[in-house]
Design brief:
- The structure holds two protein chains of two kinds.
- Chain A is an alpha/beta fold.
- Chain A is 46% helix and 13% strand.
- In chain B, 69% of the residues lie in helices and 6% in strands.
- The longest helix of chain B is centred in the last third of the chain and has 29 residues.
- Classes of the chains: A alpha/beta, B mainly alpha.
- Chains A and B meet through strand 1, helix 1 and helix 4 of A and helix 3, helix 4, helix 5, strand 2 and strand 3 of B.
- Strand 1 of chain A pairs antiparallel with strand 3 of chain B.
Chain lengths: 165, 170
């Protein structure tokens, strides 16, 4: 009783190609002529994304982060939501969840009044954007020594460094 | 050689068909607006899904919204409908699988961060996304079935034979 209409299927495949080519043409030309166009190919690696608008690299290697941690030279900040922080975090890190940053940022200013203090911010996952967002906010607020530990929670855990649960 | 006019008459009849066609077209038009206006934000969203390799993220962010715009227009105006439905269903399935994939590996697609265990605050919107996408998929599936599959009672047919509309009583 049911039959595939092969003529329509054939026709639709030709038409699909037409729609696709038209979309390619429209998108590329619109992007080319608009003032806010984006590059066709962009480097989305964590290192490239963690550049400030001024070209400064925010990312800190793990070896350097653990050295700062052991010498107690840096404040560690967890930018993840508070329930994840309570589930487990780097021992001694303070929690400034990016989601509710307006309410929590005051606590950071109280605990870290020195704008030259080393601060290492982390969240979880290579693509996680919370640390960078928080880093840029703190830099805007005048802090000069801000670093981001990419995929911080996972790499910290993998290396068996001190944590609190 | 196919009789295009005859085929078009077989899917223009049902009210449900027209309703879902317009509905899906509106969904695509609505979905593409923000993405066309802010391509870099959309590229960030694609990146957060952590599925596509870095070199094609921006290309996808540029192409997808325009494809959605064309599909929306085709669905609403009934032009190139079979192809528009083929594309729509393909895109809806890709979005749905990507959503489920990230749900099960515990990736929060809003920030690209792993947030396992999934807490209740995130499970609720996630359930809503899945239900919403299932509804879109059903609408797309129904439209596609109506166009690509010949049944005895396809719209515009009586007893499996095409109706000569000029002979119908008004």
């Amino acid at each position: 009783m049911y039959r595939l209409k092969t003529e329509i299927v054939r026709k639709s495949i030709y038409q699909s190609g037409g729609i696709f080519l038209f979309a390619v043409l429209l998108s590329l030309s619109f992007n080319h002529f608009r003032s806010t166009g984006i590059p066709l190919v962009e480097n989305w690696s964590p290192e490239a994304r963690l550049k400030t608008p001024g070209g400064e690299n925010l990312s800190i290697p793990l070896a350097q982060a653990i050295a700062l941690y052991r010498s107690r030279e840096a404040v560690f900040v967890d930018a993840r939501p508070s329930d994840l922080y309570h589930h487990g975090h780097i021992a001694g890190a303070i929690n400034i969840p990016w989601e509710t940053v307006d309410e929590n940022i005051g606590m950071f200013f109280e605990k870290v009044p020195d704008s030259n203090a080393s601060v290492v911010i982390y969240c979880d996952g290579e693509a996680c954007s919370l640390s960078k967002d928080l880093a840029l906010l703190l830099m805007d607020a005048g802090y000069t020594n801000i670093h981001v530990l990419v995929n911080g929670w996972s790499v910290w855990l993998d290396h068996g460094y001190p944590i609190t649960k | 050689m196919i009789n295009w006019k005859h085929y078009k008459s077989t899917w223009n009849g049902s009210r449900w068909f027209i309703f879902f066609r317009l509905f899906l077209g509106t969904v695509f038009l609505y979905a593409c607006m923000e993405k066309i206006l802010h391509p870099h934000d959309f590229a960030q969203s694609i990146y957060n899904y952590q599925i596509l390799p870095s070199p094609i993220i921006n290309l996808a962010a540029l192409l997808l919204p325009w494809l959605e715009l064309l599909l929306g227009i085709c669905l609403i105006t009934n032009i190139y409908l079979p192809a528009a439905l083929l594309w729509s269903n393909m895109l809806l399935w890709i979005f749905f699988v990507a959503l489920l994939y990230n749900y099960f590996r515990g990736l929060n697609v809003h920030c690209g961060c792993f947030s396992a265990p999934m807490d209740q605050n995130e499970a609720a919107p996630m359930a809503w996304y899945v239900i919403r996408d299932l509804f879109f998929l059903s609408a797309g599936g129904y439209l596609m079935f109506s166009i690509f599959i010949q049944t005895r009672n396809s719209p515009g047919k009586i007893d499996g034979k095409p109706v000569d509309r000029s002979t119908l009583k008004k």
